[in-house]
Design a protein that fits this description.
Blueprint lengths: L19 H13 L6 H14 L13 H14 L1 H13 L2 H13 L18 E5 L4 H11 L7 H12 L1 E7 L12
Parallel strand pairs: 1-2
Helix pairs in contact: 1-3, 1-4, 2-4, 3-4, 5-7
């Protein structure tokens, strides 16, 4: 068998698919519930905030009021793949019900997925391949038809699809042509 590298994108590339108000909402949710996420991701967030976040008027940016901290952390999220990874993993952890539903939904559409419990932040990045017939609109429409309680949360649904599938719609391919990252490494 040929051993070839699988191209992945750094986690912060997800910003190309997020609008600022939604990104700020994700940061706010994670900061508000940071005590409810795993120690590794909470520490990762804290350490990056401590070393990289500069908030005028605060020697320790972690002590800034939440809205100010969120506003200034957005730039770090946009540029730092480690920070983006910890924020996204934390967001996934505080949304376990949505994660389970999205996982089942994608399986029902015959997506090949890594186990739900696998910490995707341990992967080298996000895969750029996406099923050619499954754009975000098609997926969210089908999801909302099956789960109408998520009608007003389609951004959350699409973000969870990206996180659980570990894919972004950059290169549209037939799923039979997909390459997979070996999560056991």
């Amino acid at each position: 068998m040929e051993n070839k590298e699988i191209a992945t994108l750094p986690f912060h590339v997800i910003n190309e698919f997020m609008v600022s108000p939604y990104r700020l909402g994700i940061l706010s949710q994670v900061f508000e519930q940071q005590k409810n996420i795993s120690t590794s991701h909470s520490k990762g967030i804290h350490n990056i905030i401590k070393s990289s976040l500069k908030v005028p008027g605060f020697r320790n940016a972690a002590l800034a009021p939440l809205p100010i901290k969120v506003k200034h952390a957005e730039q770090i999220f946009e540029k730092n793949p480690e920070f983006a990874k910890h924020i996204l993993a934390g967001w996934y952890e505080i949304n376990p019900e949505l994660a389970k539903i999205v996982f089942s939904f994608l399986e029902s559409r015959e997506w090949k997925l890594l186990p739900l419990k696998l910490d995707r932040s341990n992967l080298p990045g996000i895969l750029p391949t996406w099923p050619e017939k499954e754009d975000f609109e098609t997926l969210t429409t089908a999801f909302v038809e099956a789960y109408p309680e998520y009608t007003d949360k389609t951004d959350d649904v699409t973000l969870m699809i990206v996180w659980i599938s570990n894919r972004l719609p950059i290169e549209m391919k037939n799923p039979m042509e997909w390459e997979y990252v070996d999560a056991a490494k």
